[in-house]
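In response to the reviewer comment on reproducibility (Comment 2.3), we provide here a single inverse folding case reported in full, input and output, so that an independent group could reproduce the run without further information from us. The structure tokens appear first.
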């Protein structure tokens, strides 16, 4: 199979897994989100280490793995903490809508970078964000505490966008298994330290059962796919998952709930679909190496 086809299949699979996650019932005995993510990243990192341990330290210098570790925590671990903090004041639907701004952040990051790429993606990214806001209601908090949590969520969105661009550059010289080891273990350590210092560390042997569930297995597959796509797919393309996933979820809602079709839903769906398609399939110029799939 052609490499590009494999990459697009991986992207579609990642979006489908995330968009259909609601189908699998949550376990009432599950660990807190940050701690569960720490364990999943740890399992992924240790599993990859068993295969990549030979020559890992020789293949990567100290500065390389340090940069990769810090960037991966900014991309994955820290946003987990900030999202968890914001969930008390902002609904999951609102969070999904706000994260539709990630492609715009990536486009701005590319436009202001040394490559000067991404300018033509900014307009469709902003249009997509507008479409997401039409589809997914966002109830802004009305208190100081809620405003601080909203600011934290905006910081998470900026981190994801900026770190996505940097991560793509860093991973071009790193083998896949090495990347899984560093990204997995770095985020596992960060999240576990956060849980311990925050007083939310609840791990017990009898609470490990949910980690072996179908939902956790799917989460591990998503981690493996995401690390691979961070290396293989240009950041502006990969950021479109924040548009495709809510779009698929809305389509699922149409099929299952069969709501009344309103002008707002129609316009929002049209804007989100058209903009996501542009970001995914618009031609990339040869002089934009950081966005090239070749």
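Designed residues, in position order:
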């Amino acid at each position: 199979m052609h490499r590009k086809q494999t990459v697009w299949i991986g992207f579609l699979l990642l979006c489908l897994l995330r968009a259909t996650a609601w189908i699998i019932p949550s376990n009432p005995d599950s660990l807190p989100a940050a701690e569960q993510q720490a364990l999943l990243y740890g399992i992924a990192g240790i599993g990859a280490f068993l295969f990549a341990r030979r020559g890992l330290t020789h293949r990567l210098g100290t500065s390389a793995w340090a940069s990769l570790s810090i960037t991966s925590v900014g991309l994955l671990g820290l946003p987990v903490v900030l999202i968890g903090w914001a969930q008390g004041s902002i609904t999951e639907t609102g969070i999904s809508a706000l994260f539709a701004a990630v492609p715009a952040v990536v486009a701005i990051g590319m436009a202001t970078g040394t490559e000067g790429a991404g300018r033509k993606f900014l307009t469709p990214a902003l249009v997509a964000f507008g479409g997401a806001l039409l589809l997914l209601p966002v109830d802004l908090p009305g208190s100081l505490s809620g405003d601080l949590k909203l600011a934290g969520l905006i910081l998470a969105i900026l981190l994801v966008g900026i770190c996505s661009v940097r991560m793509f550059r860093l991973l071009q010289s790193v083998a896949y298994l090495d990347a899984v080891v560093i990204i997995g273990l770095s985020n596992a350590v960060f999240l576990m330290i956060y849980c311990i210092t925050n007083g939310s560390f609840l791990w017990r042997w009898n609470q490990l059962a949910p980690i072996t569930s179908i939902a956790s297995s799917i989460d591990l597959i998503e981690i493996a796919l995401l690390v691979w796509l961070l290396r293989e797919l240009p950041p502006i393309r990969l950021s479109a998952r924040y548009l495709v996933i809510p779009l698929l979820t809305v389509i699922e809602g149409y099929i299952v709930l069969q709501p009344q079709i309103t002008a707002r839903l129609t316009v929002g769906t049209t804007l989100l679909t058209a903009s996501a398609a542009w970001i995914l399939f618009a031609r990339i110029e040869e002089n934009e190496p950081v966005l090239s799939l070749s």
